[in-house]
């Protein structure tokens, strides 16, 4: 089973509610979030950790375990517990994927105008052709981009994997560096693209849940 939790920070929380939830996090995480200048970025940073906390509850893991967060040599965060997780945010959207059965990677992107020619080194000629000929070039671009980003986030080596090197031999399957990844699109909201990548069999069930960031009273 793969659990996906998501939310959209469409409006600013009241200061006391924001500070209440922020205080639930370990000090290093609080410091990083407070460095953001835009409230939208700070909220997305906080919401990502709150989604992780909520997701860990499904596996009986207390939120206090966040203080034991570790990082690989490629800066991918992980916990000593067997649950793998990955967080992504873009625009106002935040998403977190978790699983104790397989390695996961997830990427969400807000669809915005851009010049795809600036990204020629990240895509194959076939992929670029599909973007140029698509009815909605921007949407097509972000479909491919989120697929690739989800894969490198799952793999954990980040930019050490060239996006152009990722091969898609068939629908829903990707290969890179001799390893195969299952790919699923996760529809969340118009004007956003989101893809999940995971290692394992294609029939792994995926549960997608919206999550509302509540007040200290109702949360």
Total count of helical runs of at least 4 residues: 5
Beta-strand percentage range: 25-35%
Q: What is the correct CATH architecture?
A: Alpha-Beta Complex
Describe the strand arrangement of the main beta sheet, using strand numbers.
Answer: 6-10-9-8-7
Distance between the termini: 25 Å
CATH class descriptor name: Alpha Beta
Order of helices and strands: EHHHEEEEEHHEEEEE
Task: List low-confidence stretches.
Answer: none
Helix content range: 25-40%
**Which fold name fills CATH's third level, the topology?**
Ribosomal Protein L22, Chain A
Quaternary structure:
single chain
Major β-sheet annotation: 5 strands, antiparallel
The gross shape turns out to be globular
Identify the CATH homologous superfamily. Answer: 4'-phosphopantetheinyl transferase domain
What is the gyration radius calculated from CA atoms?
Answer: 18 Å
Structurally, the number of domains stands at 1
Key terms for this structure?
219 residues, 29% helix, four-stranded mixed beta sheet, Ribosomal Protein L22, Chain A, 11 strands, five-stranded antiparallel beta sheet, alpha+beta
Q: What report would you give on this structure?
A:
By secondary structure, the chain is α+β, with helices and mostly antiparallel strands. The chain has one domain: 4'-phosphopantetheinyl transferase domain (Ribosomal Protein L22, Chain A), CATH 3.90.470. Helices cover 29% and strands 27% of the residues. It has 5 helices and 11 strands. The protein has helices at residues 15-22, 27-34, 39-57, 125-133, 137-155; strands spanning 2-8, 70-71, 77-78, 84-90, 93-99, 104-110, 167-170, 173-176, 179-185, 192-198, 206-210. It has a 5-stranded antiparallel sheet with strand order 6-10-9-8-7. A hairpin with a 2-residue loop joins strand 7 (167-170) and strand 8. Helix 4 (125-133) runs antiparallel to helix 5 (137-155). The longest helix is centred in the first third of the chain and has 19 residues, at 39-57. The protein is globular. The mean pLDDT is 93.
